Amino acid sequence: MTGNHKDKTISRRRALAVTGGTVAAGGLAVAGFQSAFADTTDTTADADATATATSTGSECMTLMTSVTEGPYYLDGALVRKDITEGKAGVPLTLRLTVVDATDGCTPVKGAAVEIWHCDAWGYYSGYTTANPGGSAPAESEEGDSANDLTYLRGYQIANANGVAKFETIFPGWYTPRTCHIHVKVHTGGEKEDGTYEGGKVNYTGQLFFADDIAEEIFTLDPYSKHTGSYTVLANDMVYDGGGATSGLLTLKAVHKKDPSKGYKGSLTLGVDPDAESTGAGSGGGGTPPSGAPSDAPTGTPPSDSASPSASASS
Asked: Which candidate, 309, 312, 269, places its Cα nearest to that of 50?
């Protein structure tokens, strides 16, 4: 059984910005949730990991491959570690280390790492009526407390060692893409009103998952309710087979014999802090499935925050 992380707080953007996430309840045992989401890496370990990344030589000096931001980007994501908002799925902790690939892979302190991805059935917040392809229940049937404009989106500010950490769920899939998470690295801005404002985007990319792990996850509930033809890495229009420099995550199971307990994913993002990314990148990203709006997300944004705007880059 997979986790169903129920949000016990008021489902309001402001409340989420203050609390920074949700509490565990429901189908996933609390112990499993805590072990998957525990922040067990202290400052010393962060420093050690950064030193290791810096010492890897030419591999570390390779810039990450910039790719399209895709059709589901929204401005105004919240700065928070836990982006689940009660969405059901296998827990996933992400540890992303931002380094300057043009300067010996030194940590980029204060970089804002932004991620967004679909839920277990392939639906993105802001686009909850977009058909993910195959056969899947309507997003409204999930019965969670998530805000339809903000779930599974967020920023984290990299610490002195360039490390940003997130708590989320393993993403599902939509036609014709493989399983992935979108990521941007921003610098030069600042946290304001619960989100990140100003500065520039240095890198736009996507994070990918090994086929065997993704396919095992998709046999579990609630992922198994979405059926159809899943696109493997080799057939994806964005992933170019470059491994870590193309965004392939290193994944470690929390419990080797029980994938529903969750995974820990990590990757070092080698970026150029002086560069500016438009979000176009390489790879088409795919045409939004039928039902995806061409200009604006569905629903009304919360009244106590700025309206997120949609970007329909493809």
From this structure: 269
Q: Which residues contact 209 (CB under 8 A, 6 or more apart)?
A: 170, 178, 179, 180, 248, 249, 251, 265
pLDDT at 310: 32
Q: What span, in angstroms and rounded, lies between the C-alpha atoms of 146 and 10? A: 10
Element (H, E) at 46: helix 43-54
* 23-37 per-position pLDDT tens digit: 232 233 223 333 343
Return the C-alpha torsion angle 241, 243, 248, 251, nearest 10: 130
* Secondary structure letter of residue 194 according to DSSP: T
**CA-to-CA distance for 105 and 232, rounded, in angstroms?**
31
Residues 6+ apart with CB under 8 A from 212: none
CB 80 within 8 A of CB 20: yes
8 A C-beta contact, residue 224 and residue 134: no
What is the rounded distance in angstroms from the CA atom of residue 125 to the CA atom of residue 241?
28
Tell me which long-range contacts 18-23 makes (C-beta under 8 A, separation of at least 24).
18/194, 20/80, 20/81, 20/82, 21/80, 21/81, 21/82, 21/83, 21/84, 21/167, 22/82, 22/84, 22/85, 22/86
Q: What angle do CA 253, 166, 122 make, to 5 degrees?
A: 75
Say what percent of the chain tops pLDDT 70: 69
Length of the chain: 314
Measure the CA–CA gap between 221 and 269, rounded to whole angstroms: 32
pTM of the model: 0.76
| Sequence-ordered strand ranges (E) for the chain | 3-4, 73-74, 88-89, 91-100, 106-107, 112-116, 153-157, 163-169, 180-192, 195-208, 250-253, 263-271, 310-311
